Amino acid sequence: MGYKNLGEFIARLEKERELLRIRDKVSALLEITEITDRMSKSPGGGKALFFENVEGSAFPVVTNAFGSHRRIELAFDATPDGLAGRLAGIIKQAPPRSMLEKIGMIPKALSWTKFFPKTTKRKAPPCQEVVLTGDEIDLAKLPILQCWPGDGGRFITLPVVFTKGLADGRRNVGMYRMQVYDKKTTGMHWHIHKDGSHQFLEYKKAGRRMEVAVAIGTDPAVTYAATAPLPRGVDEMMLAGFLRQAPVVMVKGVTVAIEVPAEAEFILEGYVDPEETRIEGPFGDHTGYYSAADLYPVFHLTAVTHRKTPVYSATVVGRPPMEDCYLAYTTERLFLPLLQTIMPEIKDYLLPWEGVFHSIAVVAIEKEYPGHAAKIASGLWGSGQMSFAKALVIVDDPSLLQDGRRLFAHILNTIDFSTDVTIAKGILDVLDHSADNPLWGAKIALDATARIAGEGERLAENLDYSPVPPESDTELLLRLQQKESGFTGLRILFPSCKRRLIATTIDKQRGQSSRPYLDLLARESRRGGIFVLYDAAIDLADDSLLLWKAFNNVDPARDIAIAETKITIDATRKNHADGHKRPWPDDIEMTPEIKRRVEKILQKTTTGF
Ligand SMILES: Cc1cc2nc3c(=O)[nH]c(=O)nc-3n(C[C@H](O)[C@H](O)[C@H](O)COP(=O)(O)O)c2cc1C
């Protein structure tokens, strides 16, 4: 049986030497982020952090609690693959017959485990040991983080947000960050594609206030479940019960008719007025960039309740790897059997961390008929939050997903640029900054499966078996620089593949387009390949950085050009001259001053760093 509450999970982490206590005084303004970021970026995700002494608050803070494979395993007493196996076992007990049945399987699969949430009528449950209403409410007393220097303020980063649909009365639970505006109000950042926003629109249409309750600091199954992309109408607390192998115990809020987890550390109760919006953000986001400020609903607090000695739970997101990568990995594994109920030909899939949830998925299929890869791409682009995927790569061999270098080599040796690349349109995560418009734009699918009868052969000339001897990095760079001095670096990756992958950097002045550089690059290379252009500041030796920039900075329709045996990809920062009219966000970086202060704090903390 899983943990009853966050406290039990923290105790287990400590017992397993997975938690580091920071006893020195730290500030929730940037310092906790800098320490957490260093920990997240240390090998394997480091340890969870427990900040005992936070300036200006009586409450301790825990971060990075999910931030390693080991801690995810401790959170659920199983690996994500183990959880997926358990779920698949239940689904297989009674195979669904029709599509409708398949979709209906999800709640069934979860409820069969008999771990429906339970309601307690207990007076003063743990989450309501202290009840604050009216003028007693003051969010300034909570150790809420300002994560990054360019953030619009302090943000609650790990909130479990409970709402109820107006039409069906069903519970929805989602994780949507909340910017603190003052003692009693915050933003409510549910993106338009999410179920929380859908319920909000129901209230808006009806012209009614929407009650909301937010739990901060819950047992790991409840926290994770809020992030899980369950279909609309499926109760995330059922998933939490399935994960912890015990029902979640819920209790009615003190000022709202919404149930909250009785064992939570903090509960914020209140409402959202559908007619009111306010600027939310900017915020240093999962993408490693600042997400733009925009108008979002406002959450008014009517009560804060908490345990007698609560722990405030937070996460810090930013350039991967961070804690959220391990949550995303859990979702990737757990949702495979669910995805397979709708597309059984999917053998496995991979969401690379550099793609930050929404940018890229690599999918291995059991191919049976012509156009099968295209069918999978269309299906995924219409399935729940997989619809956000900007790039899809379809292969046959699932072992390619285990080895990035083999996967790249396979793509470079297989793809016929003239026939295997599809550009389509669809929805994009609001965090995507590369598209011309927010929320929708271009997508790309690469079919790297073996051709079968009915599809025709890949054309040999398009695979470029050119006898021309390839040039070296320096030869090609020098030739380019003779024609254009803006080229600053070049690296040839996979030199022995039929096609090469060539990464170059340019000193692109603001207001200048990348196009002339890309054209020159394609013209000057003697052999075919994929040519990717980066900004001069990029370290071409850092493979993960190259992937992250390519996945996040590219709009497939605008930034990818195919000419016979050559594909050019523009992964630089875009501007008006490139045809990009929206502001381009900055990379997230900590200030040197905070880095210095944190150095000092960490010198006193002898273990763990
Ligand atoms: C740490 C973290 C923060 C998140 N913040 C947001 C957010 O601010 N807004 C949002 O719409 N989704 C956010 N998400 C993703 C959602 O929680 C996720 O898409 C979830 O499935 C939404 O639930 P829903 O479909 O029931 O609305 C976040 C995820 C994580 C792991």
Characteristics:
alpha+beta; binds flavin mononucleotide; five-stranded mixed β-sheet; 17 helices; 28 strands; globular; about 600 residues; nine-stranded antiparallel β-sheet
Using the alpha-carbon principal axes, give the shape. globular
Structural class category: alpha+beta
The helix count comes to 17
| Unreliable spans | none
Ligand set: flavin mononucleotide
Number of strands: 28
- What's the helical proportion of residues? 25-40%
* Biggest sheet statistics: 9 strands, antiparallel
The radius of gyration computed from the alpha-carbon positions, rounded to a whole number of angstroms, is 25 Å
Oligomer: single chain
Mean pLDDT: 93
Percent in strands? 15-25%
How far apart are the first and last residues' alpha carbons, in Å? Answer: 32 Å
Annotate the secondary structure layout.
Layout: H1 6-15, E1 19-22, H2 31-41, E2 48-51, E3 61-63, H3 69-76, H4 80-93, H5 99-111, E4 118-119, E5 130-133, E6 155-156, E7 159-164, E8 171-174, E9 178-182, E10 185-187, H6 195-206, E11 210-216, H7 220-227, H8 236-244, E12 249-252, E13 259-261, E14 266-280, E15 283-284, E16 290-291, E17 294-306, E18 312-313, H9 323-334, H10 336-342, E19 346-350, E20 360-365, H11 372-380, E21 391-395, H12 404-414, E22 421-427, E23 440-447, H13 473-483, E24 487-493, E25 500-506, H14 515-524, E26 529-535, H15 543-553, H16 556-559, E27 560-563, E28 566-570, H17 592-604
Parallel strand pairs: 1-2, 3-18, 4-12, 20-21, 21-23, 25-26, 26-28
Antiparallel strand pairs: 2-3, 5-17, 6-9, 7-8, 7-11, 9-10, 10-17, 11-14, 12-13, 14-17, 15-16, 19-20, 22-23, 24-25, 27-28
Helix pairs in contact: 4-9, 4-10, 7-8
Residues 172, 174-177, 189-191, 194-196, 226-229, 315, 317, 324, 327, 385 line the site of flavin mononucleotide (FMN).
